[in-house]
User: Fold this.
Amino acid sequence: MGREFLDLFEVWAESYDESVEGHDKEYEEVFRHYSRILDTVADRSIGHVIEFGVGTGNLTSRLLDRGLKVTGIEPSPAMRKIAESKLSGRATILDGDFLTFPEVENPFTLVSTYAFHHLTDEEKREAVALYGKLLPNGGKIVFADTMYESAEAYKGAIDKAKENGFHNLAADLEREYYTTIPVLRAILEENGFRASFSRCNDFVWLMEGEKT
Assistant:
């Protein structure tokens, strides 16, 4: 359920915001247009929002600035502590993950950025099936994450990272559960969602699913 990576986030919490600002050359492209990506997710959110993988609260603050009610789900105690401090009590941040989280009343939009790849494809399927039961017709999934147009494109990204000497990035791409758009589209459609995808940078795509 992605919690096998929890120790990494406990260590990363203090420097996470610095990382997304592009200070690490290996991850510069991964986080290119970071603010724009968060704004796009927030702009496409409506109603009561559940945010999975709150991290340090960067997307949460944008959702709140748009007047939305937000319930955040975050498994990392260190990340939760930073987010709660940053958000000054404006949102409820609960312990949980994509598959296991406290009951939330009447959510309409489910959002996440840079986190869904912590789940295997089977866990992603399980999660979307859960969301299909949780959301009403018209409800939305709006996730921004690294994904690829094909298995060949995924392998090509790993090879390119190694060629550029980006060994940490290559190790991340090999270690975590990045997947392809055809796989995600099939998962969404088999659970009653109309799917669409749009590219944000060389790594990140915006995935939207509307419950039909």
In short: The chain has a mean pLDDT of 92. Residues 121-134 form the longest helix (14 residues). The radius of gyration is 16 Å. Residues 19 and 157 are 20 Å apart (CA to CA).
